[in-house]
Amino acid sequence: MRGGDARVPGARAGAPVTGRTRTWNPTGHLDLGLVVGPLRRGPADPTFRVTAGTVWRATRTPEGPATLRIAARSTGIEAEAWGAGADWLLDRLPQLLGDTDDPAAFAPRHRLVAESHRRRPGLRLLRTGLVMESLIPSVLEQKVTTDEAYRAWRILVRKYGEPAPGPDGMPELHVMPDPHTWRMIPSWDWHRAGVDNKRAQTILRAVRVAPRLEEAMALDPEQARKRLELVPGIGPWTSAETVQRSHGAPDEVTVGDLHLPGIVGYALAGERDADDARMLELLEPYRGQRHRAARYILLTGRTPPRRTPKMPKTDIGKL
């Protein structure tokens, strides 16, 4: 179910280009927005767009840059891809959209979770099969506001990434830089993007061993996290945020988060000041599915009343 020619990476001019195509029929209900939503790093993410129910995603595969367009139709999931990595993306379309996930393994044990589960039958945990594309933005999100992290990702990818391959008229997308390019970013551009030296150095250490980190895809999520955490600056928060996306890991709950323990504590026990230990205690009945349980809790939108000011923006000039 393929056709056409993959476009030369970065080519945007000339006659319309036909990508390679695939139609896939998932088993059971699938909510495309819920499944791929975790890949979006803010509303202006240069690697991700949603237009009229169609998802566009630019990424760097082991075979090269590629753009993937996905839409849910009555005939199934229709996908088209361009670039050197087009076949790689289309071959892995089912696993990206949660075909290797097992939603039936989840059993709600709290009323609020059960209601969220009932209202969202199409939630599946995606699996990108790519480590660095989730690791780098997760490092950028360490210890800063999400707005600051999204801004840094946007600035760096637009300046140092490359235009995504695809047809004329597609949304403007960029493929994130390759490891060599990340290493060449000068210190002043990290600073202009609002990235302090600690996060920049963590990314630089990671891209130097990028092949070894990508090999973590052959490991189970727990072992993959251990490999990632061998890189100084990558801790449990960052490794969990990465493997949740790269591996589709249903049990890898995020610890060390500023807000998640309070949200889980409030949702499951009416407690506003839960810490990581209390969060894990409350999620213990979901062991094996703790990340999925946290997703359902977050989707309720139920959060504890705010007692303290929002996390202040970081002035990296004072670090």
From TrEMBL:
The keyword DNA damage applies. GO terms for molecular function: alkylated DNA binding; DNA-3-methyladenine glycosylase activity; DNA-7-methylguanine glycosylase activity. Gene3D superfamilies: Hypothetical protein, domain 2. Keywords: DNA damage, DNA repair. InterPro entries: Alkylbase_DNA_Glycosylase/TA, DNA_glycosylase. Coiled coil: none annotated. One of its GO terms (cellular component) is protein-DNA complex. This is DNA-3-methyladenine glycosylase 2 family protein. It comes from Streptomyces mesophilus.
